[in-house]
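Risk mitigation, structural track. In case the binding assays with zinc ion fail to produce interpretable data, a predicted complex structure has been prepared as a fallback.
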Amino acid sequence: MWRVPSTDNFFFFVCRCYGATKDIYQKRFDILYPIYKKTEKVQGQIKNKNCDATPISRTFFCQDNISALWTRLFADEPSVFEKNYCPTLNCKNNNMKNVVLFPTDYKTLIQRGFGSLQKTLDFDSVIYNMHCNYCDGNSRIRRRSPNFMIYIELDIKTRQQKEGQECKLRELPVYLTVPVTNEDGSSQDLRYRLCAVAGYSSAHYIAYCRRASGRWVSYNDLMKKAEPTADSHKVLPHGALYIKNIQ
Ligand SMILES: [Zn+2]
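Fallback model:
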């Protein structure tokens, strides 16, 4: 639930007592408003013009899953760029696609746990002879290349589970390797380093950032400031961000 910055006493109470500032709330609102504006409660039409209407405070409902929000915010900065091409004569299938969430084998991840994240990456940089919806043939070529950052959704649960799976921060692999075959046939292993985890707690998200030094810092806007966090800290991870390791 969000309130538009105003002279609202509640809003100033939140800003004064906790870490987030009015400026941060305003910027956050500017980002979220276009996405969630449909949830705004609208005042009904006033029938009697002489009647003093009580204004409804402008309230928006923004509760969402972080990966759903990430998909919308980072549509142009995806985890993977995909190119499809069909060499069949007269077939015009030639398109680009952004894959925002990094493809992951969730069945295996549920079975083996977060420590096996590397094994569950479902990435092929090139696949030949795929089915083509344009010409109904089977000659489509799909090429994928990972971006400089990859986001992996981690909100995993079986049908029986209500909550997802918890883990300690240190259980998530610090490095992931993504093998890539380039268009010229050369290949390379790209290495990615864990830099952030989105942890879920009672309808609230907390950002855990892993510094290059290996130290963890948590950012929780219900706290006054960022807090150093032990790698033994337990979280309910909904997403992890890895960035390309440049050495
Ligand atoms: Zn085709």
